[in-house]
Amino acid sequence: MNLVDLLEKRGIEYRKTNNPSEILISCTSGQHVDKSPSLSFNLEKEMFHCWSCGFGGGTTKFLASIGETVILDFDSKHPYMLKKLKQKLEAKMELNTVQLPDDRQIFVEEFKGIDIKVLKEFNTFTTSKMGLLDYVCIPVYQFGKIKFIEGRSIKNLANQSKYNRQPKNAVVSDCLFPIDKIKNTNYVILVEGIFDMLNMWQLGYTNTLCIFGASNFSKKKLEMIDRLGVTRVDIMMDPDNAGQMAATKIANALDTKNIFSRIIKLPDGVDPGELTQRQAENCLR
Question: CB 3.0-4.6 Å disulfide test: which of 148, 207, 225, 236 passes with 264?
Fold first, then answer.
């Protein structure tokens, strides 16, 4: 048995941090109430420390603090916790296998106010296949696998859909993009659309995640945010009624996991994809 298995057996909640070898647990010293977990356990070093009260030590001392005397197995050669987390998430999420078209060409122009550097960072391309002709295409990855390709119309023709997702039956209920690129998941910003996210990244907010539509914040996404160790969320939905109703719903959902959130008020008629640097700074101040 390992520590994670033991915690789950005992019903003790834990959270992942941006360090794949570390988890957070509510302090077991008995010296203080710890609603926001402050005890850090390093799975590789087999050491723990509470950043609130200073309680710390090795595995044996931690086990004694929860009334256990079992011997645990640790994996010191691999980032254990991240591996465990991915296995759990992948077991619950059906990740689509999507092949990128072999005729794709890197998109090398500014598009929808997003500069070439940012579009290149997200591997934006064009293709004549998969029904994506005349679309700017962004491959949506999650945990190293392509979930789907999100296409945005270039010419805005009357007989052409603005967005074209391939495959069309792609599931977005378990997708937060680009979670793979975020270096520190303690604090994230949630926006509705992929170009909202791209604009925020362009402005320097590289902790922004797209939920793919105001109505697409699901229990799976809430669970993912919780398991990734997010402790603070800024909710930046569109300023219309649908967006603000969704923001309130998301805030209530986050509250059930004791995740602090703010609903960010945007200037009238301005979506996150249209914010200027100064507007974004004022909104998030």
Answer: 236
- The HSE-up count of residue 113 (CA atoms within 13 Å, CB side) is 17
Q: Record the tokens describing residue 143, joined without a space.
A: 């945990």
State the maximum Cα–Cα separation within the chain, in Å, rounded to a whole number: 69
Number of domains present in the structure of the chain: 3
Amino acid at 85: L
Give me the sheet containing 187-191, strands edge to edge: 208-210, 187-191, 232-235, 260-263
Reported as a single tens digit per residue, the pLDDT across 178-237 is: 999 988 888 999 999 999 999 999 999 999 999 999 889 999 999 989 988 899 999 999
* Residue whose C-alpha is closest to residue 224's, from 182, 274, 266, 194: 182
pLDDT at 14 over 90: no
Q: Which domain holds residue 232?
A: 179-284
Task: Fill in the amino acid letter for 246.
Answer: A
Residue at 263 is within a domain: yes
pLDDT digits (tens, 9 = 90+) for 97-142: 688 999 999 998 999 999 999 999 999 999 999 999 999 999 999 8
Q: Is 174 among the domain residues?
A: no
CA–CA gap between residue 73 and residue 224 (Å, rounded): 26
User: What is the token pair recorded at 171?
Assistant: 């599931």
144: in domain: yes
Distance of CA 116 to the CA centre of its chain: 24
| Whether residue 96 has pLDDT greater than 50 | no
Q: What token pair was written down for 154?
A: 């270039």
- Residue at 26: amino acid letter: S
> What gap in Å lies between CA 165 and CA 108, rounded to an integer?
21
Cα within 13 Å of Cα(259), Cβ side: 29
- Judge if 255 and 159 occupy the same domain: no
Q: How many Å apart are CA 189 and CA 264, to the nearest integer? A: 10
Q: CA 80: distance to chain centroid? A: 20
CATH code of 195's domain: 3.40.1360.10
